């Protein structure tokens, strides 16, 4: 896998040998966010997802030892809902990039619990975001406010969670409810980022089947407080 900005800034990763080589100029290193997002993170994450964990576009939180995976396209509310849950006493795992650990039967998800990324419009929901700088990744990515979790008091975090349920988020509704979600549709969503290599893709599909055994739901909501309490009920009652 090659990531090339120009002749003097590029990265090459060999997944079979677990080696990545990055060459950048000193001028590039002066832009830390750009280097981190486009080169360093890309190389590290690429190695991880081809060797020991499968990436899922999902957020993750945990309550009473029960992990919930929040799935949905960009803008579905994964970051805001996971942060709202954490503010209400849940444990925060990650807001976007969740990784299903390969070779295990207990549905373990790992993620970066050090940061929460919000759209700028989230300032209206969480006053603590007001005044924080807006970062635009590589000048072409979506603008976001990055909040280190270490800066939030009484904020519980963990780098891993055992998943009980998978929940797809839907904010474009008239009626708030939690309903069953088709397992096959959920699996197709997760396979969007699966490997093109046939044997590796089969292994990923088996892991996703196991992940979805705990139950898949769709949370239709417009109010964050209602959503947090409904999810609390799901954890404690199973439905």
The secondary-structure element order is EEEHHEEHEEEEEEEEEHHEH
Quaternary structure type: single chain
* CATH fold category name of the largest domain: Rossmann fold
What Rg, in angstroms, do the CA atoms define? 18 Å
Return the domain count: 2
What integer is the average pLDDT? Answer: 92
Tell me the fraction of residues in β-strands, as a range: 25-35%
Largest sheet, in brief, is: 5 strands, mixed, barrel
State the helicity in percent bands.
25-40%
Which architecture of the largest domain does the CATH hierarchy give at level 2? 3-Layer(aba) Sandwich
Poorly predicted segments: none
What is the number of helical segments per DSSP (H or I, 4+ residues)? 6
CATH class label of the largest domain: Alpha Beta
Order of strands, widest sheet: 4-5-13-8-7
Query: Which structural class best describes the helix and strand composition?
Result: alpha+beta
Describe this structure in words.
By secondary structure, the protein is of the alpha+beta class. It has two domains: 2-49, no CATH class; 54-237, Rossmann fold (3-Layer(aba) Sandwich). The chain is built from six helices and 15 strands. The protein has a five-stranded mixed beta barrel. The protein has a three-stranded antiparallel β-sheet with strand order 1-2-3, covered by helices on one side. Strands 9-11-10 form a three-stranded antiparallel β-sheet. Strand 7 and strand 8 form a beta hairpin. Helix 3 (78-87) crosses helix 6 (224-237). The chain starts with a strand and ends with a helix. The mean pLDDT is 92.
């Amino acid at each position: 896998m090659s990531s090339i900005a120009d002749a003097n800034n590029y990265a090459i990763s060999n997944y079979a040998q677990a080696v990545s080589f990055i060459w950048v100029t000193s001028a590039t290193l002066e832009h830390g966010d750009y280097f981190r997002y486009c080169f360093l993170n890309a190389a590290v994450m690429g190695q991880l997802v081809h060797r020991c964990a499968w990436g899922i576009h999902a957020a993750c939180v945990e309550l009473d030892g029960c992990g919930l995976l929040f799935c949905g396209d960009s803008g579905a509310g994964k970051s805001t809902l996971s942060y709202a849950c954490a503010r209400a006493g849940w444990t925060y795992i990650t807001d976007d990039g969740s990784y299903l650990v390969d070779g295990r039967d207990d549905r373990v998800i790992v993620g970066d619990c050090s940061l929460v990324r919000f759209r700028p419009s989230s300032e209206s929901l969480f006053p603590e975001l007001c005044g924080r700088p807006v970062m635009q990744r590589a000048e072409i990515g979506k603008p976001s406010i990055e909040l280190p979790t270490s800066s939030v008091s009484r904020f519980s975090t963990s780098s891993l969670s055992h998943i009980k349920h998978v929940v797809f988020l839907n904010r474009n509704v008239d009626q708030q409810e939690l309903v069953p979600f088709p397992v096959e549709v959920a699996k197709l969503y997760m396979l969007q980022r699966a490997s093109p290599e046939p044997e590796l893709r089969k292994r990923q599909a088996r892991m996703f089947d196991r992940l979805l055994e705990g139950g898949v739901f769709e949370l239709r909501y417009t109010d964050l407080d209602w959503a947090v309490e409904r999810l609390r009920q799901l954890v404690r009652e199973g439905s």
